[in-house]
Amino acid sequence: SPPPTTPPTRTLAWAPTSLTTKSQLQQNNLNPTSKPLLLLLHRSPTDSYPLHWESTGGGADPSLDDTLLSALCRETVEETGLRVTKVVDLVAVDEWRKALPGGQGEKKVIKWGFLVEVEETNSLKLNPEEHCAFRWADEDEVQCCENR
């Protein structure tokens, strides 16, 4: 099958080692020496998939993004106010086909998952039209919720 005509979509995960201060960890009842955490965002009650938890993500915009990594950095700032300082690893690639409206065929969708570090800051800046809350969760918490 032919490659997509625009850069693919992706999601993000963060290792908060360079972001989270000791006081922030204590506010979230987390141990400062704990393993990397995933930043989960709570979707706004007025947005699609209301009040669902998700990782940060978005689509690449060919008019703004020269590469997938530039899309990753731009979307991170737009959704959280955080600046990516290091892309640690590509952790997942999912691919599927999505039907186009009006029965006009289908398009290929690719979702890329990255582990990144972000600059240290005291707070996240959420867009209230998209997200109403956030939480740092370790792998065990995420797996527990997936199995409910």
UniProtKB/TrEMBL annotation:
<dbReference type="InterPro" id="IPR015797">
    <property type="entry name" value="NUDIX_hydrolase-like_dom_sf"/>
</dbReference>
<dbReference type="Pfam" id="PF00293">
    <property type="entry name" value="NUDIX"/>
</dbReference>
<feature type="region of interest" description="Disordered">
    <location>
        <begin position="1"/>
        <end position="30"/>
    </location>
</feature>
<protein>
    <submittedName>
        <fullName>Lipase</fullName>
    </submittedName>
</protein>
<feature type="domain" description="Nudix hydrolase">
    <location>
        <begin position="4"/>
        <end position="148"/>
    </location>
</feature>
<dbReference type="InterPro" id="IPR000086">
    <property type="entry name" value="NUDIX_hydrolase_dom"/>
</dbReference>
<feature type="compositionally biased region" description="Polar residues">
    <location>
        <begin position="17"/>
        <end position="30"/>
    </location>
</feature>
